[in-house]
Structures are given as structure tokens and as C-alpha cells.
Automatic annotation (TrEMBL):
Family indicated by similarity: Belongs to the RuvA family.
Assembly and interaction partners: Homotetramer. Forms an RuvA(8)-RuvB(12)-Holliday junction (HJ) complex. HJ DNA is sandwiched between 2 RuvA tetramers; dsDNA enters through RuvA and exits via RuvB. An RuvB hexamer assembles on each DNA strand where it exits the tetramer. Each RuvB hexamer is contacted by two RuvA subunits (via domain III) on 2 adjacent RuvB subunits; this complex drives branch migration. In the full resolvosome a probable DNA-RuvA(4)-RuvB(12)-RuvC(2) complex forms which resolves the HJ.
Any one biological process term the GO annotation gives: DNA repair
Domain DNA helicase Holliday junction RuvA type: 1-62
Record organism: Asticcacaulis benevestitus DSM 16100 = ATCC BAA-896
Top-level lineage group: Bacteria
Signal peptide: none
Gene name as annotated: ruvA
Protein name (record): Holliday junction branch migration complex subunit RuvA
Role summary: The RuvA-RuvB-RuvC complex processes Holliday junction (HJ) DNA during genetic recombination and DNA repair, while the RuvA-RuvB complex plays an important role in the rescue of blocked DNA replication forks via replication fork reversal (RFR). RuvA specifically binds to HJ cruciform DNA, conferring on it an open structure. The RuvB hexamer acts as an ATP-dependent pump, pulling dsDNA into and through the RuvAB complex. HJ branch migration allows RuvC to scan DNA until it finds its consensus sequence, where it cleaves and resolves the cruciform DNA.
Renumbered residue ranges of the record's region Domain III: 151-203
Entry's free-text remark on domains: Has three domains with a flexible linker between the domains II and III and assumes an 'L' shape. Domain III is highly mobile and contacts RuvB.
Alphabetically ordered keywords of this record: Cytoplasm, DNA damage, DNA recombination, DNA repair, DNA-binding
Main subcellular localisation: cytoplasm
Amino acid sequence: MIGRLRGLLLETTDEEVLVECGGVGYVVRCGIRTIANMPELGAEVILHIESQTREDGTRLYGFLNKDERKAYVVLQGVQGVGPKAALSVLDILTPQQLAQAVAHEDKTAVGRANGVGPKLAQRIVIELKGKVLMSAEFAPIASGGYAPAAVTPTVNGESVAALMGLGVSEQQSRIAVDTALKTLGPEAELAAVIRASLKALGK
């Protein structure tokens, strides 16, 4: 089973990347956030891989760090959460933000993910309660929840919602917001992120 790939990034699409390792090209399915943070084509990339075998073959799902992969695996353990829904959740919430949403039973934050309705969002926050979603930022406590670190509200999700309200597609909104946050930093204010996202969209 493949757990990690290190090679040259040859191609990217809206859902997949092609990575060449030792002369072999691997097609890896990734979330929008992951693809938006890929290096330039031809550069080296390291992906943490989760392999899933189906009737039509084996699919590889790639993540830029171990915490994202861990959160993806834990999400897959929730009834009704398939690969697409798990990636959608991680498109709008980092593992740290997801852990905080679970700790505070914030189904609204989880429900912003594409394809995740209110009932599934509620099931996610209930079933993930007490489970370790990442390595360091959240530590299990006696109550079965997590001791939350100081995390600001989800500027990512609010920015995406604002752009969609202006008529931008969800996919374009997410890519533009991720690009803006990569430039401005995670502590950027909502208004600044929206302005930078619109600039990235050429509006």
C-alpha cells in the first residue's frame, strides 16, 4: 500500500494531480485546497497518500501534511461520509478548525462543505466527538472533548460564502480565497481576504 509519494508535479486538474516518481506517473485525487497549494508544474512535491481499493481499481488520495490525511481517514469512519464529502469538509476546514468545530458541536461550520447537509454535519460533529483528528494542536481531555487552541473564526468559509453571494462559483471562490490566504496569511481579516480574492479573480 502506498503511503507517501515524492516526485515531480507534471499535471493538475480540478480534482487530480499527476506525480512522477521513478519514471512512473501516479494519478492522485486531491481536494481543492490541496491543489490550490501545489507548487509550480515541474517542481518536487511530497504527498501523504491514503489508498482505497474499489471494484474498478485502487484510487490514491493525496494530502500535503499528515494531519490532513489523518482527519480524512477519521471522517471516512462516519456513516454517510464518502471520499468526496470528506475532501469537501477539508476544503473549507483545516484539521485544527475541524477539531474545534467538533469540540464546540458547530454543525454550521461543517455544513458549509459542498455536499454535506445539516443532518450529515450533525452526525459528523457527534461521531467525531472524543476522536483525535490531528497531532498537536488539540489534546484529549477527561470530558472526551478537546482543549481548543486560540483559533480565529473561519475566515476561509466566510470569504467563500461572500464570493458565492456575488455570483462566483463555489469552486472558483475556494481557489481564490485559498490563494488570498496564502498571500495574506491565516490571520488576515475577512474584508482583506475578500478584496484579495476578488483581485485574484480579476474582478
